[in-house]
Amino acid sequence: MAKISRTAGSKATIYDIAKLAGVNPSTVSRALAKPGRVSAKTQKLVEDAAAELNYSVNPFARALPTGRTNTFGLIVSDITNPIYFDIIRGAEAAASLSGFTMILAESAESADTELTVAQRMLPATDGVILASPRMPDARIRELAEGKPVVVINRSIEGIGSVVPDVDPGIGEAVRHLAANGHRKLAFVGGPKQSWMAARRWESFRAACEWSRLESVLLPATSPTLDGGRRAARDVMGSGATSALCYNDLLAIGLMQELQAASVKVPDEFSVIGFDNIFGSDFTTPQLSTIASPLRECGAAALELLLAALPGTATETGKPAPSARLLELRTTLVARGSSGRLLASAAG
Amino acid sequence: MAKISRTAGSKATIYDIAKLAGVNPSTVSRALAKPGRVSAKTQKLVEDAAAELNYSVNPFARALPTGRTNTFGLIVSDITNPIYFDIIRGAEAAASLSGFTMILAESAESADTELTVAQRMLPATDGVILASPRMPDARIRELAEGKPVVVINRSIEGIGSVVPDVDPGIGEAVRHLAANGHRKLAFVGGPKQSWMAARRWESFRAACEWSRLESVLLPATSPTLDGGRRAARDVMGSGATSALCYNDLLAIGLMQELQAASVKVPDEFSVIGFDNIFGSDFTTPQLSTIASPLRECGAAALELLLAALPGTATETGKPAPSARLLELRTTLVARGSSGRLLASAAG
DNA sequence: CTGAAAGCGCTTACAG
DNA sequence: CTGAAAGCGCTTACAG
After folding, report:
1. What is residue B322's predicted lDDT score, i.e. its pLDDT?
2. Among B104, B119, B281, whose Cβ lies nearest the Cβ of A104?
3. pTM value?
4. Which of A119, A252, A259 sits opposite B282 (nearest CB)?
5. pLDDT digits (tens, 9 = 90+) for B95-125
6. CA to C1' distance (Å), from A61 to D8
7. Sign of CA dihedral A75, A189, A221, A236
8. Which chain A residue has the Cα nearest residue B72?
9. Each residue's pLDDT tens digit, A286-323
10. Is the CB of B62 under 7 A from strand D?
11. Inter-chain residue contact B279 with A282, CB threshold 8 Å
């Protein structure tokens, strides 16, 4: 191949640096890759030369011999779902602290797409984080045989898992409603197959029981604004005076429909959502909701992934930290859509 | 190095395939990389062997000799900004059609971060798309010297640019307001330095002039809910009976504050936003807004990028398609927050 | 159409 | 601490 002269676009290599610094390329590699394995003098020589040549490492050349990419993948189930914003940011912030680069992708709520995307990502990364994965456990375990895999919003035995602990937030919400005179509480449910939906309902039911309140489960057709609107009739017919919804979208749709039917929120009916999504403060009144520590979830997932990287010395007895289940507290964000039940409305 | 036996985790190479298929590794490479340069019989031999070994190409090994990664980067200014959802999806969909993988990153609205991220991304990709870049033109041109760069929501001479054409949507909005009895219209402005903000105001002013309506520019402290709330006083004091806002967040904040002051929307005042963001239908009434073809913007940006890749035969006379400016139509989404001005409110 | 060989830019035992 | 060499897994002129 014809020798190309060094122009604006072409890149300097460690050989160029070696020549300029008067050392061997392998020494340049050592100085650049892991400072400390080279004399201070040589280090400086190399760094100066690198700076002068405006050197930056070729990531592909580096990854080829080592297999390490310093990159991880994050696959979310739906890029438009606001709960992922902070998960993304938390993971990304934690990553850049460790010199890792994040590759983001979405599965558009399809288990098949999720698998395809994960398989495509894995070879180009050191591992992946799956946020609210839709694949079956078994498939995720298979993926995890090759490289580290961590899941968020799901707990899988033997796989690093980060899930919000819904109990604290739900407990707060139920006590808040009880304190405001509510005696019968509805739960507008999420998708049937959703692991998280089951968990939220179960926690709600238990909290109501504990507080000696009546609870009722009302399924929704879909976890969307429209699902919330359509659930309004059942909610009103249930005799409950307040509802906790599986997610904020349901809660907002429900509130819209109640208001359309001239039901005053919160004077006559209290509505509480889940997730504290972007836009949950757009409504009038603003939506009360249970918030997960999403940023922390993202960061924790990355830590788990890092801990699972080969080379991390934890081949001891107990399960590797990478196979741990991490539970992070949720909290109630009380805003305008929930509050005291006016006496006139109780009947 | 000790020979490692092939276990679940380790990967097959083209040498393994070559051995199994009884051909030379270079033939395997040809068969896999660009089918058609090999006899049908050999092709099948190779493919079968590859399938049997569960082969997948090592992206780093492939990228090293060629420099081609089949990957592109998309940098958005703020991952939490809903206008990027559809841009991301549009680009990603167009990309996977061409066998390209997307790497997503955000700059958190910082020009410095944006540059850092872009510089880190460029070596690992074939080019990047910058959505609403915050860097100065000159810096973007520098980046573009090395590899293809395309911008969205900004027009830079000599750089592939995709911008929504705001005129159609704004024209619709102004005619809609005029038809509903509004004579004086306010524009709640965006960030001073924002290219797009200037463009929107200018288009609005021109449309009002054309319709012989009075227009007034009211700056906002920031393009947020809070900025919208704080602009309410000025808006009410301006004598206008309707407002177009630089973005939906401003419009929603403005509407909230008006309603808090018992101004009826839209009977006494009409509010129109811009961007049709996630959540713009959470409000009561739902927000009227001007929508950009964001998905198309994302897809178009990717096409421009692809066209700019070396090897794309367009070294002809006129500016490469990659240096083109693409303008995509906006439209009005009329919902509940805008409409007829009641006579009683006109005075 | 297919083989044999060189090379992409780095890392890492192996010597010294 | 540093050099010389081999190798990571592919691609692509060059021959035939």
Report:
1. 63
2. B104
3. 0.81
4. A252
5. 988 889 888 888 888 899 999 889 888 988 9
6. 9
7. negative
8. A103
9. 999 999 999 999 999 999 999 998 866 544 445 566 67
10. yes
11. yes
* Any strand C atom closer than 7 Å to A1 CB: yes
* pLDDT class of B4 with cuts at 50, 70, 90: very low
Is there a contact between A59 and B283 if contact means CB atoms under 8 Å apart?
no
- Inter-chain contact B283–A282, Cβ cutoff 8 Å? yes
What confidence category does residue A85 fall into, taking pLDDT thresholds of 50, 70 and 90? confident
pLDDT (tens digit, 9 = 90+) per residue, A243-261?
999 999 999 999 999 999 9
Burial category of B112 from C-beta neighbours within 10 Å (exposed 0-12, middle 13-18, buried 19 and up): exposed
Calculate how close chain B gets to A154, using CA atoms only, in Å.
23
Give mean pLDDT, residues A211-232: 96
As ranges, strand D nucleotides with an atom below 7 A of a protein CB are: 1-5, 7-13
Listed range (A115-124, A197-206, B300-309) with the worst mean pLDDT: A115-124
Residue B224: pLDDT band (50, 70, 90) is very high
H/E stretch holding A274: strand A270-274
Phi then psi for B305, rounded to 5 degrees? -65, -45
Give chain A's domains with CATH numbers: 14-57 (1.10.260.40), 71-164+294-310+319-328 (3.40.50.2300), 165-292+332-346 (3.40.50.2300)
With an 8 Å Cβ cutoff, the interface of chain A facing chain B consists of: 8-9, 11, 56-61, 63-64, 69, 79-80, 82, 85, 88-89, 92, 101-106, 119-120, 123-124, 145-147, 225, 252, 256, 259, 278-284
